[in-house]
Amino acid sequence: MAMLLLFIAILIGTGDHASPKIKEFSWENQTIGAEDTAFTLTFSRPMDRASVESNLQTDPLLPGKISWTGRKMVYTLIKPPSYGKEYEVKLERAYQQFAGGEGKRQGNPIKPFKSNFKVRDRAFAYIGVDASEKGRLILYNLTRKTKLILTPEQLVVTDFKFYPQGDRILFSAEPLLDRPPGTFNQQIYTVTTGLNASGSNSKFGELKLVLDSQAYQNLRFDLSADGKTIVVQRLNRSNLSEFGLWVLRDGQVPLSLGGQPGGDFILAPDGVSLAIAQEQGVAILSLNPGEKALDFLPKFGTVLSFSRDGGAAAMVKFNTDYTKSLYYVNNQGVQKEIARTSGSVLDAKFDPTGTSVYALLTDLQQIKGEQEEDQYQEQPYLAAIDLENPKLKPLLLLPQQRDIQMTISPDGLGILFDQVVTTPGIPPDRALTTNDGQAISTSQLWFLPINAANLQATVPVQPEKLPLAGFHPRWLP
Question: Gene3D superfamilies in the record, alphabetically (predicted)?
């Protein structure tokens, strides 16, 4: 009995020698995307937090902020991880919290930890223009240099949006054999991409009809950030005065919003409201039928994009001196002009962190006409705007075309844009056309790398010509 009591006393006096360990790493062996913004480490015992924070490593470096809830540590990313890469997370030389309190004395050292996670391949989709690819939706994996044609020859794709996991694409298309002049018969479909949330491959090219065009013409459409809501602008074929927005939610029948025709619209990231251009300004509408407008902004003509968190938007204002202004507008009441041009504001998109805007602008240039009369043409260019200290930095002069499409990669490290060549005159039957109705004869895709170094460079960064003939590119989320 005396020896047993002595042993217990020694054990209590010297403490528990078992090493703490990481019980769970939320991204272990996972494939993630830009929507994944934080990982967690769950420890078996209370830890000396300072020793954990100073010894946690990621390779490659992945900046983030640390917070704690009991034995669980949350690492929130400052910016998205680079697509197409594999990351390693390591923790050594961290210590259990000593019973006397945090930081007073080192407890037991942690069992060394090492684990990995991957980021989705860098990939995008576009509409083909050449030969058997004409009008078809194509998925190109930039990481693996592979190409998949997703849609059949008999469908001519006109627009598309990725679902948030990249496993499906929502698109509008017209039957190739049913396109007599003057008709508009596009229907809404989904198609599988062959990718899933885990990053592994599955079946691709599986079509599903979402919305037909028998009673209504389907015009513009948009998909919510969570992939659960579709909004379509529709026109009743038998009653042309019935023109407005319809909402489709998972497992429900299409529902008309009623009385809100308007023009260009865009869904907000919250998935429950949208911004639509109307004659007197921009209205913010609820997606619940019968509800009044949530807000109205008479100062602006259209909304080009929202930041990822929905807290800010890029809007266009048409000035009385015939110039156009690009504005940053947030939900705190800030309305700040960040660019002004004599030409047009074609597009503007936030970078993933919401700290910069990339804009497609044009400058109005004066040229001499054949009879010495002044004429004007628009010179498009791509520019970056730092929102903390708004200053426009031109990045690249672009071909003289109005219908330029650009898209920013989800990790913010690259921009895709197209270079469309059109044919003058009335588009022939079955021709691919731009948004302003010109026939597309061919189109080239380009990739422009963007990072802190080349944004500050005095010499413009040159884009890379991709070996792909197509237009309307969109990055995989």
Answer: 2.60.40.3710, TolB, C-terminal domain
